[in-house]
Fold this sequence. Notes:
Layout: E1 3-4, E2 10-11, H1 14-34, H2 40-43, H3 49-80, H4 99-113, H5 125-141, H6 146-174, H7 178-211
Antiparallel strand pairs: 1-2
Helix pairs in contact: 1-3, 1-6, 3-6, 5-7, 6-7
Amino acid sequence: MSKKSSRGITKLSFYEQVGIIIPGSAMLFGLLYFIPDLRGVLTKDGVSVGQLGIFVLLSYAAGHLVAAIGNAVEWLMWKALGGMPSDWIVREDQTLLAPEQLNQLREKLQVLMGLGVEKVTGMDAKTWKPISRQIYAKVMKDGQTSRIDTFNGNYGLNRGLASAMLVLAVFALTQSLWWAAVGLVVVGSIFLYRTHRFGVYYGRELYLQFLILTDQPKPKIPRKKTESA
């Protein structure tokens, strides 16, 4: 989500910058090639500050359109691979954590969150999903989501770029540019491969950061007593 600074100016989050604006910009630049009438926006007498601002806004809007397509691409990809990586932890053949770490995870769920889970492996994925969300909330509360959010941002970036390449490939086909369509599909496949890698990194990092959380509550710093005048 975007955040507001102390001056009231809205700041875009890391995910919005790399996962929304960059894919949206890539799609718009690609459309400039397939739709010549749009080229005048950037090529006429250079680019003014106002034009750049409009382009960023258009990229943000286009990025959300690309993200909607990315959601469908994402669903199809992980459906074929047995679900989201954060849910792989319940599979018998999971490789996110070692057996010893799985036991530690179960203990942490009891100590830190009061959840009595007898065995993680073999649990239904739908039952585990809200637990994984609660794990992220706990890690976020302790301020340990930096690496997780970085992986998530790069995941969104590659998912968005893969979807943008898919959209541009469709435009290429409408103009019978087969060579361009094939090239865009190849590039999109590379971005989709990177999406898979960062998705796995995210799933593994989520549980690793949870495992290193301390079992002891943070000590409270006593307040200093003010002397009365």
